[in-house]
Amino acid sequence: MTLAIVLAAGAAAGLTTDAGERLADRLAGQWRDAGAADVRVVTDLSELAALVTGATGPVLVSGADLVAHTAVLRHLATSPVGPTVALVLTDPPAPGQATVREERGQVVGVDEPAATGVFGGALRVGPQDLPALAAAAGRTAGEGGTAAAAAGTAAGEGGTVDRLFAALAAAGTLTFAHRVRLLVAHRVGTEAELRAAGAAVAGVDEDRAELRLSVKERDDFFTTFFVSTWSPYVTKAAARLRLSPTVVTMFSVAFAVAAALLFAAGGRPALVAGGILLYLGFVLDCVDGQVARYTRHFSAWGGWLDTMADRAKEYVVYAGLGYGATHAGFRYGWALAIAAMTLQTVRHMTDAWYGVLHDEAARRPRPVAGESDGIGGKLNAASTKVQADTGSVSYWLKRTVVFPIGERWALIALAAAFFGPLVALCAVLVWGTLAFAYTGALRTLRAWWMKVPVLTTVDVALHRDDGPLVRRFAAVLPAGLTRVLLRAARPGVGVLWLTVLPALAPLALLLLAWRWGADTPRWLVGVAVLVWLLAALGVRVTPDGPLDWLVPAVLRAGEYLFAIAVGVLGGAPAWLIFGYVFVLTLHHYDLTARLEKRQAAPPLHAASLGWEGRSILLAAAANAGIVSIALATLGAYLLVVFVASVALAWVVLPARARRTPAPVRGGERLPG
After folding, report:
1. Residues 605 and 588 sit within 8 Å (Cβ to Cβ)
2. pLDDT tens across 500-543, in order?
């Protein structure tokens, strides 16, 4: 149940609308319309602290000086960016109003000199942050006016909710920023300001603005000019038909699968039709998110499904192109498809981990004068400047050169329709490789400058996909060897070299298998897997190097290369190798989606054996001469584990949690 609290303190509590309604009472009604099940109007922080202490769900807090569209409150209440979200405005701050500094959508400072906005007087606090909110309310109520001075704010109109927000931020609560776009929200302190804000609200068509807001504020070139110009009409129709975002996602998957089948069939009419269906599938891929934003139907399941469906659709299309190129007479069609899938997956791994790195850097104190010098700091400043210059040529070039999904799907559709599957795959590989080199080089320089030990903030073993053997090895690794590794790691790039060097063994094995095929000596597989397992030596070393965020991506690349090499050496069909790597990508994208949302491990993660366990099994199969059987069996096993884990995570366990009553103590139901 969502609780909304209107803090009616200060002169704004006495303001009334033209209809004679108190502004605080109108806000209470708006919170009900925004979806709050219980709405309370309180006059001091002690009452607020008591209400928060007994709450079990999200709590919405606002001052009594906010004039806004109901949609603004609804968007804040349903924002999917994080559990705790604050409204941020661009208005000039009035006395007593807290200013904020935000980076990458996070509030990283309150009442600092380099402010980027002003606190909008409203926030949503997630259940896990409610103890911090109650403590902040109690502390601020007890301190009274001195809290304002401690937080750097002046005690004035509307200052109570600002002091509460400042105290919550000072407690270290991770808060995300929700900015108002197209709609209206203002904080008022006088009757004249109230009338002006009310007129501004009345001058905007709320539903029309919400439909426009369903489109991302910043998107890539192709999506912006060739999809978002007309996709809102589809979004409106889908909403009227009561189609959920998940249903739209399934339609998008169906279009992509149909396009893949047409690419595999070959022939100019089929290729052109496949290109058209692929484009329409991408439109629907955008529409599912737009429907979610327009109807405010967000869920963890929907976000996970969208991430997994995007990658599955793209790789199914690669499979169709690989099959089509092979049957058109090109020997290595499937090889190109495998290479495209491997490249794109490793790229996405670096994207996810760099995002974690950047988020961690944003939450840290800004570098002091002189620390931002050097190429890393200059690149960071240049990137920020380009991103701010929306609509410029440099802005669109920067967004396009990285080869985002819209550009990838457009290139595939056009190249396949006009030139065939072979050209489409080659084009994806060439542009993807150049984009990987470009982003990798710039991110490496910027990461070196940020100097953030990102891998200490997440469950490294989980997201690196370590299995039981590596975990057991980490537990028994001698402390003396650990110290040696630590000393060796610190001068350079941290523990990255402990992963990169062993990863060269799978690459070398692949090259030899490609050259000699079945004539490759089997003992080389054993040597390669032993060298590859040396990467486990770094598990006890604290990952604090500037490039250690690349370790998971290197592990992914090494495992894929080893599986491909074993498949080639064992004479396995190319489509079977593709299928096995495809199943691995599903498993790894599941981990990546959980990393980005800071979610727990999949229920059956231990059954996936880890990167080292899977590699050892494939090495044993290669020496036994049963590579095809091993790839098929292990791939089927991993797929079953993945499907069962998904069912447990999103169906069985949530249903069981809903059926299980909360523990009761002393006659009072407590949160479980």
Report:
1. no
2. 889 999 999 999 888 887 778 888 999 999 998 888 876 666 66
Q: Is the pLDDT of residue 154 over 50?
A: no
* C-alpha–C-alpha distance, residues 476 and 467, integer Å: 15
Compute the distance between CA of residue 368 and CA of residue 190 in angstroms, rounded to an integer: 41
- 131 plus 194 within the same structural domain: yes
pTM of the model: 0.89
Domain termination site, one of 213, 242, 269? 213
Within-domain flag for 460: no
Do residues 599 and 529 share a domain?
yes
Instruction: Output the pLDDT for position 44.
Output: 87
Among candidate residues 452, 475, 491, the one where a domain is terminated: 452
The answer to whether residues 120 and 180 touch, using CB atoms and an 8 Å cutoff, is yes
Residues 128 and 17 in one domain: yes
Alpha helices in 517-573 (DSSP H): 523-533, 551-569
φ, ψ for residue 85, nearest 5 deg: -135, 135
For 559, the token pair is 């495992």
- Summary count for the chain: helices (H), strands (E): 28, 12
Which residue in 6, 122, 118 sits closest to 64, CA to CA? 6
Q: Does residue 410 form part of some domain?
A: yes
Task: Tell whether 43 and 91 lie within a shared domain.
Answer: yes
What percent of the chain has a predicted confidence (pLDDT) above 70? 87
CB 357 within 8 A of CB 549: yes
Overall domain count for the chain: 3
- SS3 (DSSP) at 114: coil
Nearest to 342, CA basis, from 526, 506, 571: 506
Q: Tell me the average pLDDT across 32-59.
A: 93
In the DSSP assignment, the letter for residue 113 is S
Host H or E run for residue 346:
helix 333-363
**Residues β-bridged to residue 39:** 4
Instruction: Provide Rg for the chain, Cα atoms.
Output: 28
For residue 185, being part of any structural domain is answered with: yes
- Rounded Cα distance between 339 and 32, Å, is 53
Q: Give the pLDDT score at 487.
A: 60
- Which residues is 664 bridged to in the sheet? 669
Judge if 375 and 511 occupy the same domain: no
d(CA 559, CA 588): 11
Which domain CATH number covers 59?
3.90.550.10
The contacts found for 340-343 with CB under 8 angstroms, 24 or more apart, are 340/425, 340/428, 340/429, 340/432, 341/315, 341/578, 341/581, 341/582, 341/585, 342/557, 342/560, 342/561, 342/564, 342/581, 343/429, 343/432, 343/433, 343/436
Token pair for residue 502?
A: 């062993």
- 526 CB-contact burial (10 Å; exposed 0-12 / middle 13-18 / buried 19+): middle
Q: Quick check: 285 pLDDT over 70? A: yes
Q: Are 228 and 92 in the same domain?
A: no
Q: Residue 368 carries which DSSP code?
A: P
Same domain, yes or no: 531 and 618: yes
Amino acid in position 167: A
CA angle 392, 396, 398 (to 5 degrees): 115
Largest CA distance in the chain: 90
Which residue range is the domain that position 69 belongs to? 3-213
Residue 601: which pLDDT band, with cuts at 50, 70 and 90? confident
Residue 597 maps to a domain? yes
Same domain, 447 and 406: yes
Q: Helix or strand or coil: residue 220?
A: coil
